[in-house]
Amino acid sequence: EYAECRAKARIVLDRGPRFDLVESLLWRAGGGFYLLEPHVARLEDSAAYFQFKFSAENLRKALLDFSARPPQGDSKVRILLAREGRLVIRSESLNSITGATLALSAKPVKKSRFLLHKTTHREQYAELLQEHRGRIPGLTDLIYWNEAGLVTEAGFANVVVDIDGVFCTPRVEAGALPGIFRQYLLGLNMVEEREIRVGDLVRARNLYLINSVRGWMPLMRAAREGVWTIMGDLNYETDGARIRHGVRGVVSQGVER
After folding, report:
1. At the fourth CATH level, which superfamily is domain 101-251?
2. Would you identify the family this protein belongs to, as annotated (predicted)?
3. How far is CA 202 from CA 52, 198, 208, in A?
4. pTM for this one?
5. How far apart are CA 172 and CA 51, in angstroms?
6. How many CA atoms does the CB half-sphere of 110 hold within 13 Å?
7. Confidence check: pLDDT of 138 > 60
8. What is the CATH T-level fold of the domain 2-93, as seen in this structure?
């Protein structure tokens, strides 16, 4: 019976879109991979869910080979896993994205299993972003929300909102990817999961994006409602007071509206 269920699942997956599984890691010059094991575990979980062939041992060996000839500076390392188990590892220099523009999506995202896994199948996000770029010049990414009006995530990062002095992040059940840096901060009790509505996002005094490659990215409101500018990145701080102090520092340099 179990084998029959797996066979039926295989048929459904084979009829679906072709895609690879993805992990993006931070390579720190002189420090190695940041939060490596949680990334390996997440890739293993997604491979099991989508029935991809995967060997954690082979991945670690490939990453060890990579680290034997490392980039000169901090880099973003991207891992692609194909269904048959083929691994591709690429790296690129890690440059700051300070000044990038984000906006709140004008439309909700539809529920999908792909939202809970990091893959190359991102058509829903890509289509929404393309629609918005026609109205907002220079737009880098969107902050998304679901059909229940709950904030989920940005296209490349999780969302954190400072609500009454508590760092809050949307629940995975709302449609947020279980990001590695997000999980790390939850484990430190630095952030907590909460239902966050679009109105909470718009009214928030302090708003951030987070991921394990760029760390904390504080946002500042732009003149146009529902649009923000990234005011910094490459900050992996785990002290809440320092995060808030840093955000106040950058916000004071602009005109908050």
Report:
1. D-amino Acid Aminotransferase, subunit A, domain 2 (3.20.10.10)
2. Belongs to the class-IV pyridoxal-phosphate-dependent aminotransferase family.
3. 40, 6, 12
4. 0.89
5. 22
6. 5
7. yes
8. D-amino Acid Aminotransferase; Chain A, domain 1 (3.30.470)
